[in-house]
Amino acid sequence: MKNFPIVCVGGSAGGLDAYIRLLKNLPNDMGVAIVIVNHITIMPTQLHEVLPPYSKMPVELITENLVVEPNHVYIIPANRDLHVDGELFQLRPISKPRGWPDVITVFLKSLTQYWDGKLIAVIVSGYDGDGAAALRGIKEVGGITIAQKPDTAGQPDMPESAIDSGCIDFVLSPEDIAKEIVRIAQGEN
C-alpha cells in the first residue's frame, strides 16, 4: 500500500486559473500526488495538454489502472467517475450523468475508504457545490480541507459551498494553498 499524501484539487468553471496559480508555486519533489478533478462532462478535458508548462511535475491524463505515484499531477478524464483502489486509479462510468456532476465528491469518498496516506482536499473555483458533501469524511480520517478564498475565484460557488459545510480548515488564495501543501508535505517527511 502506498502511504504518501494525495492532494485532490476539485474545481470547475474558473478552475483553470486556480490550477495554474497553484501548480506554478509547487516544487517537483514534495512527495505528494496532485489529482485535479475538474467536473467537465460535455467535452474532453485538455488540462493534461494545457497545464504542463506551469508545473515542475509530470502532468498526465488518468487511464484505467494507472499507478498513483508521488511527484506527479494527474487529471481526471471527462465524463468518468474516479476511484482509487490500493495504488491504482479506477475509472467508472459517471454515476450522475444529468445535472451537476459530483465527480469530486465521488473521488474524495473513495480516498477516505481506500487510501492509507494523508489526504488533502482542495476546493477551488466552480459552479454548484461538488466536493462539499465529502469534506466531513476527509476530516474524520484525519485529512486536511482547504477552500479557495472566494474573492480570488472566478466562480465562487464551489468554495463557498465547501466553506458553508463547516468542514474547512483553511480558506486561502491558490498561491497560499500551494504554500500550505508544501508545509503539510514537509511535516510528513
What's the number of helices? 6
What's the order of the H and E elements? EHEHEEEEHEHEHEH
Strand content of the residues, in percent? Answer: 15-25%
The major pleated sheet works out as: 7 strands, parallel
The total beta strand count reads 9
Q: Give the mean pLDDT.
A: 93
What structural class do you assign from the helix and strand content? alpha/beta
What's the arrangement of strands in the largest beta sheet?
3-4-2-1-7-8-9
As a whole number of angstroms, the C-alpha radius of gyration is 14 Å
User: Helix amount, in percent?
Assistant: 25-40%
At a glance:
The strands form 2 sheets. The protein has a 7-stranded parallel β-sheet with strand order 3-4-2-1-7-8-9, with helices on both faces.
Q: What features would you describe in this structure?
A:
With 189 residues, the chain is an alpha/beta fold. It is 29% helix and 23% strand. It is built from 6 helices and 9 strands. The protein has helices at residues 15-23, 47-50, 103-114, 135-140, 157-164, 174-188, and strands spanning 6-11, 33-38, 59-61, 72-75, 80-85, 88-93, 119-123, 144-148, 170-172. The strands form 2 sheets. A 7-stranded parallel beta sheet has the order 3-4-2-1-7-8-9, with helices on both faces. Strands 5-6 form a two-stranded antiparallel sheet. Strand 1 (6-11), helix 1 and strand 2 form a beta-alpha-beta unit. Helix 1 (15-23) crosses helix 6.
